[in-house]
Structures are given as structure tokens and as C-alpha cells.
Request: fold
Amino acid sequence: MARTETPKKRVSNLVGRFEQLAQSSPVQELSNRASPTSPLAPSHHIDKKWLSYDRRTLSLSSMPSAPCLSVKLERELTRNAKLRIEIEELRSRCTESDDVLSILSQRLEEGTELQASLHIQTSGLQTKVDRLADKLARRDKIQKAEYERRIVAVANERDMLASKLRMADASVERARVLQEVVETADERARIADEKAQIASNRILTLRKQLLELKKDTAARSGTSADVSDRDILDMMNKLNHLVQNWCVSSFRKIKIDPRRMVCRFEKIAALQKAKSLRKLYATFDTSIKIFTFQATVLHLLMPIFDAHFFGLPEELRGLDSAAWEMESLTTAFNEWRAMTYDLLRNGDEEMKKRCQASQAKAQTQIVEQICKTMSALTGTVILEEQKRTLDALVEHAVTLSQLLGSQRAMYRCFLPQANEQGVLKFEISAMENLMDERGSEDVAKDVRCVVSPALIKQGGERGEKMEVENVLVKAKVICVEEDLDDDSPVD
Reply:
């Protein structure tokens, strides 16, 4: 603003001086052009001392001449014209400067307004930035607290997992030690079973020798080779023990799918007549699977005890048919049966060899049938060691059957059978419930599974008193009480 005011002042001064000079110069030239006392036109080239001098002090000799004044006047006029041109130029420049100044002022005002608007926007943005900064700070604080909480939770979970892992490792170690103990116990049990089997075979051999000795003694003295009921009970208990041990050692560790058992049962022709077993496999219970398999093996062993003379050669099988025809003769039949056994045992060597070969073949068929049936039911393969144990079991059953048949008293080894509806009622006189811990004999029960056969003796030691019947061994069974079945909810 200072630069634009200075040229204006200079122009104003020049214009004022020029106007004064223009007004005064023509009058002085016409009135007193040659007068030496006439004042000079004001100019910045004229010595100002002339203005201070007193006109009365000037002498005529000291005043300039007329030509000089004319020259000076012309010079001044020329100079004034130049000054006017300069003044016009300056005026035009001032006008342009004013236009530029107005434009600049307008731009300055626009810039000021823009600055004010930008300041307002900047203030609003700064306010938003401050609010966002506060919000971000609060969010960071919340997130930091959340992260710290999660870190603490993860650390606690990690510690818990580490603790559980240590406990699991300890459990695995204990399980491994327990498994080693179990394996050691199983190995010891297997060795003990083998030793027991060897001892049983030795005992069986000794009993056979004792029986032969009794028979020889009886033959020499003319009496029958009868044995005591205690010996028969021992052999009966051994049979049950052998069946149970074989089922436990063979099928204890296998996994059974109960839903598939009834389908497997239907495919086995040898079991289709067993109504009790059909119902047992239709509602198969894995908690009593060993008892179920034991009942199945005993069912397959019963043909040994059902026949009067098991394993006879082809040419002697008529004896068994004749025995069924004479069974109603009681005392006479018992005497004939005992004498027939003595004849077969003490006959010529050729007959004994044929009987032994036929008996061995029949025993092999029984073993193969049991192995095939149990493999189909359990889905496992019977090993050779298990087959050898089963051979000894079947041989013991045949020996017991022959011993019972050679007595003059009537011995009947049998499994209680279900009726046409597949129901077998519990009879306290001939059955023993293995699951009855309370001894509730008055509660009506249905037999679910027959675990071991019953043994009944009819008559005396020499075949007399056939009307007397004694239950030497009760059939061991597993029962289901009818009260529990009636109270069970119906779906």
C-alpha cells in the first residue's frame, strides 16, 4: 500500500505546480513581458533565491534580457508539455495500478475469505481428529485390556492342558505298566492252564488206569466195574471247568457287535433247533458273552451224552438203535447196556481198534463242528493250540459219557430245553441261578441262558430201585425275573 501512495502524491504535486505555472505564465508575458521585475515561472530548475530577494533591491543591470527570458519561457513551456505527457502517462499508470490494486484487493479479500473458510474447516477437522484420537485411545485401552485378558485366559488354558497332558502321560505310563502286569499275568495264567491241562491229562490217565483196574478186578471177581458218585461228580465238574476255560481263553478279548449276532446265528444249521440259543442270540448281551458261548459249546457237545453208544463203527450202529428200543425195560436195559460196554471194551483187538478209530473220527467231527460254529459266530479263526485244548475237552466228554453208560444205574446228562415258544421256566429242583445273590426262590423266573448241564441218577448202584431219582448236579443257569420284565417301561 505504501508503494501506491507515493506516486499519487508526486503526481498531485506536479499537477498543482503545472496548473499554477500555466495560469501565471501567459498573463506575465502579455502585460510585462520585458519587465525585469516580473516574476519567473515556478520551476524546479529556477533558483529559489530569486523568490526571496526583494524586487526593489534588483537593479536594471542585474535583470535578464528579454530574449533570455523568451528562451527560458520556451524551455519552460517545452518542459511543461513534457511534464504533461509524463503526467498523463503517470495517470494512465496510476489507473492501471488502481485496476491492479483493485484486483489484488479483491484477490486478497477472496484469499482472506478462503483463509477464514480453511481455518474453519481446519478447526472442524482438528476437532474431528481430536475426537477420533480420544476414541482411538479409548479403543486401544479396551483392546489392550481385552488382549491382556485373552493372554491370561490362554496362559491358564495352556497350563491346564499341560497339566492334563502330564496326567495323561502318567495315565499312559500306568496303563503301560498295568498292561505289562496283565500280560505277565496272562502269560502266567496260560502257563498255569497248560500245567493244569497236563495235570488234568495225567489225572485222567490215572483215572482211566484206575477204572481199568477196577474193571479188571470186577471181571476177575465176577462183579460190575461200578464207580462212586464222587468220581462222576469230579469228572462232571472238570468238564464244566474245561468248557469255561476254553471259552474264556479263546473269546475273552474279541469285540462283538450285538446287532450282527442274530444274522450269524441264522446261517448256522447246527443251531437251528436250539430255541433257547435262538432267543439268546436275538437279544445278545455282551456282558454275558462268555456264558453265551459256553452254552453254545455245551449244546454242540450234547450229542455225545444223548447217544447210548457214541462213536460206534458202521457195522455196530444197530446197538444204539436197539438201545433206544429197549430203554423202557429199565433194569434189564441198564444191565444189558453195562454188559455191552464191557464187551466193547474187553473184546478182541480188532474190534477195539475199529471202535477206537470210529470214536476218534466222531470226536474229530465234533471238534470241527465246534470250531466252525464258533468261528462263524465270533468272526475269528480258531488257532491250533485252541484246537488241541478242544480235542482234550471232547475226549474228556466222551470218556465221561462212556463211564456213565457203563454203570448199572441210569445216569442222564442233559441241558434243559425251552418250550415251543422259546420259554424255559426256572425249576429250583434241577437248576441253580448263578445271578441270584438274594436267594429269592419264590419269585417266578425265566431262564435266559443254560451255562452247564444237569446230571440226574436214577436207580441204585446195581440197577435196583429205578423209581428213585436223585439230582447229582443242578444245571447252572442265568435267569431273568418276570417281575422286572413286567415293570419295565413299554416303548
In short: Residues 215 and 225 are 5 Å apart (CA to CA). Residues 224-487 form one domain. The longest strand covers residues 475-481. Confidence is low (pLDDT under 50) at residues 26-60, 218-224, 483-491.
